[in-house]
């Protein structure tokens, strides 16, 4: 009988594969599992989504999100309760995006809250499989139009220069747009290359990248490098001259320590993060994984394709006539040593579970 009780006791304790090594992570994993179960049970009655219950719980969770989660820098995992409830119905995901959008564009909000709202928008659009491409396009339109208006207002002003303290929400929005494009560009171009390219060209990335505020200098390098490779392939904008110039102009950051002040080069001056980076809690991740867009590591073929822009007269798609003579060829325009374009296009995420670094040298 004692042996039987021991066996039962062993069953109660989760197998090692289900346990997080760190005690606090283990506790958080259990709590998130309970929270997800609660959300599911409240929103579903007899196996069907109860709209009234779901809306009521959504409002409560948004209130908690605004008070506790949004102001917390680099919140880890807890924010996924919003990701989960939004997966139940597209209207909820759109409501959440609209809520974040209002936070981002409201000048009465503190800059840090607006920047964080931008991070949430970009991360949500990139990672949530349940958000259709039509919604992604609608959000990109809003964000990009706001960026262009912001540039309009700054172009002739005294503050039209690269400064995180002055233009934090602008840079956060740029990064959200770049990050979304990295994850969603294949879907945006899928089916009809001509229509997809026409849409991406209408966003006028060139004006954003070339403006005096210089967002490529402020955004995280891995995001910038992947954005540059993708936009170069489709000849939307040529970022490498700006990246090269920015690389020669380090952004010094003074950090005080016991040994005196230390000047470092800052690769994340926005102090930004992606709130929906890969979910790593072992038990509760089973709830999130089916609706989550993981970063697909670039294959050797993908790397080769990124090196080569679409050329005139290629037959990559039925709609390639759109490219013939209508998009500028950037090859050979800039006279800088070839090595100056060699940059690491790392995964745009930095947490555990991210893909290995990938190396995309600039093609001559």
TrEMBL record:
Residues 340-353 have a biased composition (Polar residues). Transmembrane segments: none annotated. One of its GO terms (molecular function) is RNA polymerase I core binding. Residues 311-354 are annotated as: Disordered. One of its GO terms (cellular component) is nucleus. GO terms for biological process: transcription initiation at RNA polymerase I promoter. Pfam families: RRN3 (PF05327). Coiled coil: none annotated. Signal peptide: none annotated. It comes from the Eukaryota. Belongs to the RRN3 family. This is RRN3 factor. It comes from Peucedramus taeniatus. The lineage of its organism: Eukaryota, Metazoa, Chordata, Craniata, Vertebrata. The gene is Rrn3.
């Amino acid at each position: 009988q004692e042996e039987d009780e021991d066996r039962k006791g062993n069953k109660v304790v989760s197998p090692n594969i289900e346990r997080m090594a760190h005690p606090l992570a283990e506790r958080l994993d259990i709590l998130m599992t309970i929270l997800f179960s609660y959300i599911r049970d409240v929103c579903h009655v007899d196996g069907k989504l109860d709209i009234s219950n779901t809306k009521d719980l959504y409002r409560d969770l948004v209130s908690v999100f605004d008070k506790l989660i949004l102001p917390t820098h680099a919140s880890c995992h807890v924010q996924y309760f919003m990701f989960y409830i939004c997966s139940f119905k597209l209207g909820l995901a759109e409501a959440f995006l609209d809520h974040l959008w209002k936070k981002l564009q409201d000048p009465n909000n503190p800059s840090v809250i607006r920047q964080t709202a931008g991070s949430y928008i970009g991360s949500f659009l990139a990672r949530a499989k349940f958000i259709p491409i039509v919604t992604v396009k609608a959000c990109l339109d809003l964000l990009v139009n706001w960026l262009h208006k912001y540039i309009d207002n700054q172009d002739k002003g005294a503050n039209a220069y690269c400064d995180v303290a002055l233009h934090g929400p602008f840079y956060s929005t740029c990064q959200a747009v770049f990050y979304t494009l990295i994850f969603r560009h294949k879907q945006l171009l899928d089916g009809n290359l001509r229509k997809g390219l026409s849409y991406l060209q209408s966003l006028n990335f060139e004006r954003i990248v070339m403006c005096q505020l210089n967002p490529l200098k402020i955004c995280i390098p891995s995001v910038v490098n992947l954005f540059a490779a993708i936009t170069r392939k489709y000849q939307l904008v040529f970022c490498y001259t700006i990246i090269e110039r920015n690389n020669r102009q380090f952004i010094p950051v003074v950090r005080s320590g016991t040994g005196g002040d230390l000047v470092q080069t800052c690769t994340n001056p926005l102090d930004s993060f992606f709130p929906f980076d890969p979910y790593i809690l072992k038990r509760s991740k089973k709830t999130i994984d089916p609706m989550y867009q993981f970063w697909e590591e670039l294959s050797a073929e993908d790397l080769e394709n990124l090196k080569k822009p679409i050329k005139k007269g290629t037959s990559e798609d039925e709609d390639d006539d759109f490219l013939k003579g209508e998009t500028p060829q950037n090859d050979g325009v800039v006279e800088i040593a070839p090595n100056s374009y060699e940059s690491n296009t790392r995964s745009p995420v930095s947490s555990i579970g991210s893909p290995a670094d990938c190396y995309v040298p600039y093609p001559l």
